[in-house]
Amino acid sequence: MPIRLVARLELLLPSQSLIQSALNEQPNLPMSEPNIFQKFPIVQMVEPGVYWWCACGRSKSQPFCDGSHKGTGFEPKEVAITEAKTVAWCACKHSGSMPFCDGTHSGL
Ligand code: FES
Ligand code: FES
Q: Domain range spanning residue 60?
């Protein structure tokens, strides 16, 4: 009988994986500050085109927006690159020259 009782209680309680996934979820709430993705720039060769730089720091496709900013109050910054060149994208999201790194990350 006690074994049955324990089994039924387990049915009423959320599983460990459910609890862990709830803890890992990051609800998109308004943010006053962007997330710091990393404290150094993302340097890459870029081709001419239009890019959408992630300003919130939550994108999983850094340095570009993947839509994760929804609900945070942040919007991606549109950047037109006119010629192929090496770009140092700000990844700390605190640059004074967004979307480009200006060294601000060193003081964070
Ligand atoms: Fe960061 Fe869109 S995901 S601005
Ligand atoms: Fe943000 Fe350098 S990475 S200022």
A: 27-107
